[in-house]
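Can you give me the bound-state structure? Components:
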Amino acid sequence: DTEVTQTPKHLVMGMTNKKSLKCEQHMGHRAMYWYKQKAKKPPELMFVYSYEKLSINESVPSRFSPECPNSSLLNLHLHALQPEDSALYLCASSQPRDSQREAFFGQGTRLTVV
Amino acid sequence: QQQVKQSPQSLIVQKGGISIINCAYENTAFDYFPWYQQFPGKGPALLIAIRPDVSEKKEGRFTISFNKSAKQFSLHIMDSQPGDSATYFCAASRGHNFGNEKLTFGTGTRLTIIP
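Here's the bound-state model for the whole set.
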């Protein structure tokens, strides 16, 4: 199983809503990532979890709140988002060993904030 | 210093031709250079990657050429096929801390293969 599964695939939410994005992998990877990708742009790193602990927060606004309940799951909790937060949100995972740097990406959640 | 510059922004190649995408970096601490392929509505998928201790890596029709002194690397797609039409991102990272690696992506190249 070399998949990173993200749910939902599409999400429309109002600016006052609270929603969560979910990500799951069963490759035994101990590093998990959230990226944000705007149209025709490269992915931008938001958060990195290493061994279930937050290791990198790229100065992301607090309306985005990550959570890593266990080594297979990664959530991104959303609250009071702005229309400019509309984007493709990508989850990725990798094995934090120097010999393996391959990051596997999920298909993403297409988020629209109205 | 963290940037990776990618060119061209878009590329049209005839079927059977060679597609070439170039990237350049400044940070000499980078030690891993992957290429990702992304189809519309999908997440990026790793295509091929190289480390700076080799000058070339080939996997099927895909080849990375790496020039450490010039701080440049490129992707060559031989015998390009319509199914190769996608957006390609080069990237770079450095393994300074396990689990704390950041992939720095290039700006992307939209490749179109025409019959």
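A couple of observations. Chain A has no helices and eleven strands. The mean pLDDT of chain A is 92.
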